[in-house]
Design a protein that fits this description.
11 strands; iron ion binding; 352 residues; HypD_2_sf; four-stranded parallel β-sheet; HypD_1; globular; binds iron/sulfur cluster; alpha/beta; metal-binding; Rossmann fold; 40% helix; single chain
Length: 352
């Protein structure tokens, strides 16, 4: 670690200007806080947190739509624990559960499928969130549901893809990004190729990295070297887990069941082809098609700045509600719910 810190100091002195690097993954955000990495690097290196928490980037409209589905007769909604706590316009899935609506927390989509198997007289909907890391498991669950002919199992997919969001961020003028600390886990699936446009089109530095303090510090040193030498490229620091070609079998498997679709990101808006929806052949399992959801009037919590936080434009403490009205025990916005959310990470590790 000492060696990387010294290299960062040397390189940053030579660069002599502010360098803006964005870590895209929520696990990196937490690791940067946990290891006090900001305090180990010179002040002209600014680390910005990106939209890398799947719970946080799910927009309020989707929470409201899930609440609508959950309140229909003979329906069981299943999802991960954090999703249950994200506030919608009128309460969360957790609150709906407390009021008697059948919402169940699961640890895996396969658990949700089990619920469907055990409740054949009910429509069981899995609220599927995540990035490329979790989508192979969702695809596997659809495969099992098809194989076992579990007809009462449905997916509401808000699955997101990381590379299209990066293109939006790199074009966000306020950020003036010099480079990206790219996510290790996502890259084990997609490899390095989907990021190539960041270098060829935008000439930004990129390093795919692991999650320990020395991984992140080494990645920062690698990024600074690329910037100093004006030779942007995609380097893989996390070589034990990430291959340039990723995991083609996993990608092929996802593509058997899902296709790319436009997707709405909290704070960013609709990004073309940045989400995964079930393919036409499996539309009988697509909750958005099966349930007739009317247009709903969603309203963001008053004063919440999640949108600006997710784009890296504002830091959580700049939100007037941070730590006062909005806390992990009583989250006002999605970024305070998941431990990988920027607001929750700031609250835990960097509160005044
Ligand atoms: Fe939203 Fe709370 Fe974060 Fe403010 S502190 S941006 S209200 S989640």
């Amino acid at each position: 670690m000492k060696e990387f810190v010294e290299t960062i100091e040397k390189l940053s002195k030579k660069i002599q200007r502010q360098i803006n690097l964005m870590e895209v993954c929520g696990t990196h955000t937490v690791s940067i806080f946990r290891h006090g990495i900001r305090s180990l690097i010179p002040s002209n290196i600014k680390l910005l947190s990106g939209p890398g928490c799947p719970v946080c980037v799910t927009p309020i409209q989707d929470i409201d739509r899930m609440l609508y589905i959950a309140k229909q007769p003979n329906v069981i909604v299943t999802t991960f624990g954090d999703m249950m706590r994200v506030p919608g316009s009128d309460g969360s899935l957790y609150r709906a559960k407390a009021e008697g609506v059948d919402v169940r927390m699961v640890y895996s989509p396969l658990d949700a499928l089990k619920v469907a198997e055990q409740n054949r007289d009910k429509k069981v909907v899995f609220f599927a969130v995540g990035f490329e890391t979790t989508s192979p498991l969702i695809a596997a669950t659809v495969a099992v549901a098809e194989d076992k002919k579990i007809e009462n199992f449905y997916i509401y997919s808000v699955h997101k893809l990381v590379p299209p969001a990066l293109e939006v961020l790199v074009n966000t003028e306020e950020l003036k990004l010099d480079g990206f600390i790219l996510p290790g886990h996502v890259s084990t699936i997609i490899g390095s190729k989907p990021y190539e446009f960041i270098v060829s089109k935008y000439k930004k530095a990129c390093v795919i990295t692991g999650f320990d303090a020395d991984d992140i510090l080494q990645a920062i040193a690698m990024l600074l070297k690329q910037i100093l030498e004006d030779e942007p490229r995609i380097q893989i620091q996390y070589k034990d887990a990430v291959k340039p070609e990723g995991n083609p079998k996993a990608v092929e498997f996802i593509n058997m069941y899902f296709e790319q679709a436009d997707s709405n990101w909290r704070g960013i808006g609709v990004i073309p082809k940045s989400g995964l929806k079930l393919k036409k052949e499996y539309s009988h399992r697509d909750a958005e098609k099966v349930f007739d959801i009317p247009p709903l009037q969603s309203k963001e919590p008053k004063g919440c700045q999640c949108g600006l936080v997710l784009r890296g434009v504002k830091l959580p403490p700049e939100c007037p509600l941070f730590g006062k009205i909005c806390t992990p025990q009583n989250p006002v916005g999605a970024c305070m719910v998941s431990s990988e959310g920027s607001c929750a990470a700031y609250y835990k590790y960097a509160r005044g």
